Amino acid sequence: MSGTQGRHPIVIGVDSFGDLTTDRDGTPLGQPENIRELVAEGVLAERSGLDFFGLGEHHTEEMPLSAPDLVLAAIAARTSRIHLGSAVTVLSSDDPVRVFQRYATLDALSSGRAEVILGRGSSIESFPLYGFDLADYDRLFEEKLNLFAQLRTEKPVTWSGTTRAAVPGLQVFPRTAGGALPTWVGVGGNPASVVRAARYGFSLMLAIIGGNPARFTRLSRLYREATRQAGFDPLPIGVHSPGHVAATDERAKREYWPTYETFMLEARRQRGFPTITREYFEHEVEYGSLYVGSPETVAARIARTMTTLDATRFDLKYGMGPMPHDTLMENLRLFGTEVAPRVREQLGAASSKLD
After folding, report:
1. Mean pLDDT over residues 275-288, rounded?
2. d(CA 353, CA 350)
3. Which pTM value belongs to this model?
4. DSSP 8-state class, residue 235
């Protein structure tokens, strides 16, 4: 096995965007109950042996997860080992100082288990909500990421730009347990974003939600070269993709397809996504970036993707639309107790063959 898989630990995690769920009878849960269920899911993720549990910021009726750090704090109080973080924080429409303070506080509450994944925002509901102009999309992220990089040093910050007030040599608190908050940049395919992440010394999270994951190999290689040129030791690469695990391949597809179809039809209406057919779904499950199936099937596909992309971390985005909460809990249990050990074993065996 080439690259950095021997230098960084293998991390297998899950994340959620807070998709509204249902009870066993299909009755939708209310938003308050749905948020409380996320805490139970985070606790189960730790009990099942997973390494990371993430919550991604969203501001819609079907994904009402506008304050994920508060939910993560509740999970921190009920867990002791699992790492907790955002997946993703829309930095462009937030304030970098407040983001750092919130996740540094989460780091304190969790005894050093906090992480943050920063992104520009593929879902743009937060821009008008907080008064930002989409015409400033790129400039907002570039300036705010620059400020966050300075905040992460935990030294006095001197910064000025056009998107927020200047910071005149101020110290920002609290400090973190490890002295540098683990920070990733989520990238959906933009080479400039890959180079930017490398320039600041942030780890790279490849958000792959469709198509053959091998097409991201060029971005993985670009990141490796860019970090080397920036003077950093090799940094971790992670993969974020959707999926669902059940006892058999057919059961997993039967449980996932109806809500996946509903979700994608709504995404087509709102954001111009292409028409989704059952044939497309089956192709994505077999060859693309939907990790849907039995533990054996999903583990083999994850291990293959991580090897191809020289990645040491995989986060399964579980849930897609209004799935029953019990179904999601079983997915988490299987992913932690059966998929994750198989992935670690397969990657370890591949690494041994090349040593």
Report:
1. 92
2. 5
3. 0.94
4. -
